[in-house]
């Protein structure tokens, strides 16, 4: 039995707490709001994010970070990417010295253009202790115990295998690799492509359009990832193509839903209302990924177009015309 601290009780953090508990581990779940912690403790349900899912009674919710982190073997960081650094500043003194720290946040930090593993390293955690969990992992489907697979990437393969063993259940099959960069770039960029797919669907465009966006989206994600040092094979796997297809295709994807509303003619505020008052990660990532690509002179036309819609007031119709009017070239 492994001691696991899950720091964040959103839909994905809560789902992973369930998975680790179902796998037979000791799980403490850090919950920011006392009222939600009390609800989880008393009803074994997260009423805000997964109201229909019964959680294992062995999950111990707490509002005290030091209680959640005490003696943890695995620490899962389950807070939004843009708040990770702030939270780590508050938590770093309580992180156990040898714990494997697992990032499940998918994004590029706006202020620094750093990947999440780099943000974690800035807090004093050695790189070989940092793992990334990524893949076609829509939280609600996994919480419902529908079969899925995921990837745990870590420079230290033995630590990846530790997390793999701790998270394996009869409904979640984890794989390992050592390509942290590839898994993070795939996870951050797919949200932007999902916005584009949502926009296309909202405009009433069909499967040919979506398949084209997914395929060309994967090409531009791969270009950026390889430039940053990723293994190109990662983008053909679960953390690349797998995550991209799930996020671009499912109505459970907040990014796709957000884009769909934009495609129907909605404003950013109206799209936010359609996703329970939350801004999709891809909106933020379209800016940071666009700037990261520009910094490294990487052509990412779909990302550029989504950035224009979300941050420069470009009309959806203009976005489509611009993409279709690009110069002809070989694939």
Describe this structure as you would to a colleague.
The termini are far apart. Helix content is 50%, strand content 12%. The mean pLDDT is 96. Helix 8 crosses helix 13 and helix 13 (281-295) packs across helix 14. With 331 residues, it is an alpha/beta fold.
Overall average residue pLDDT? 96
Shape, principal axes of CA atoms: globular
Quaternary state of the chains: single chain
Radius of gyration: 19 Å
Distance between termini? 50 Å
> What can be said about the biggest beta sheet?
8 strands, mixed
SSE-based structural type: alpha/beta
Number of helical regions: 15
Reading side by side through the largest sheet, how are the strands ordered?
A: 3-2-1-4-5-6-7-8
Elements, N to C (H/E): EHEHEHEHEHEHEHEHHHHHHHH
Which regions are unreliable across 5 or more consecutive residues at pLDDT < 50? none
Number of strands: 8
Give the proportion of residues in helices.
40-55%
Strand content: 5-15%
Topology, element by element:
Layout: E1 3-7, H1 11-22, E2 26-30, H2 34-43, E3 59-62, H3 65-69, E4 74-77, H4 84-91, E5 100-103, H5 116-122, E6 130-134, H6 139-143, E7 148-154, H7 157-167, E8 172-177, H8 180-202, H9 207-227, H10 238-249, H11 254-263, H12 268-274, H13 281-295, H14 301-311, H15 316-324
Parallel strand pairs: 1-2, 1-4, 2-3, 4-5, 5-6, 7-8
Antiparallel strand pairs: 6-7
Helix pairs in contact: 8-9, 8-10, 8-11, 8-13, 8-14, 11-12, 13-14, 14-15
């Amino acid at each position: 039995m492994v001691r696991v601290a899950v720091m964040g009780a959103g839909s994905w953090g809560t789902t992973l707490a369930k998975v680790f508990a179902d796998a037979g581990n000791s799980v403490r779940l850090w919950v920011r709001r006392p009222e939600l912690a009390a609800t989880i403790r008393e009803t074994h349900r997260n009423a805000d994010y997964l109201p229909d899912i019964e959680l294992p009674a062995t999950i111990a919710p707490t509002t005290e970070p030091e209680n959640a982190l005490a003696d943890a073997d695995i620490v899962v960081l389950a807070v939004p990417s843009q708040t990770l650094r702030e939270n780590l500043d508050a938590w770093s003194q309580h992180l156990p010295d040898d714990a494997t720290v697992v990032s499940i946040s998918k994004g590029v930090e706006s202020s620094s253009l750093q990947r999440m593993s780099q943000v974690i390293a800035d807090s004093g955690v050695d790189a070989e202790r940092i793992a990334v969990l990524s893949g076609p992992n829509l939280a609600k489907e996994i919480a419902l115990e529908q079969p899925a697979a995921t990837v745990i990437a870590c420079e230290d393969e033995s630590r990846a295998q530790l997390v793999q063993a701790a998270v394996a259940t009869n409904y979640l099959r984890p794989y390992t690799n050592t390509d942290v960069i590839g898994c993070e770039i795939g996870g951050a960029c797919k949200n932007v492509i999902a916005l584009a797919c949502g926009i296309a669907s909202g405009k009433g465009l069909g499967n040919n359009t979506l398949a084209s966006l997914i395929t060309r989206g994967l090409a531009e994600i791969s270009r950026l990832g390889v430039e940053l040092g990723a293994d190109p094979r990662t983008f053909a796997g679960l953390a690349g193509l797998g995550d991209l297809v799930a996020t671009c295709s499912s109505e459970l994807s907040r990014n796709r839903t957000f884009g769909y509303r934009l495609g129907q003619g909605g404003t950013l505020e109206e799209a936010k209302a359609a996703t329970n008052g939350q801004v999709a990660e891809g909106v933020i990532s379209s800016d940071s990924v666009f700037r990261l690509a520009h910094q490294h002179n990487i052509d990412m036309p779909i990302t550029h177009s989504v950035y224009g819609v979300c941050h420069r007031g470009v009309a959806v119709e203009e976005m489509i015309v611009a993409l279709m009017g690009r110069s002809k070239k070989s694939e």
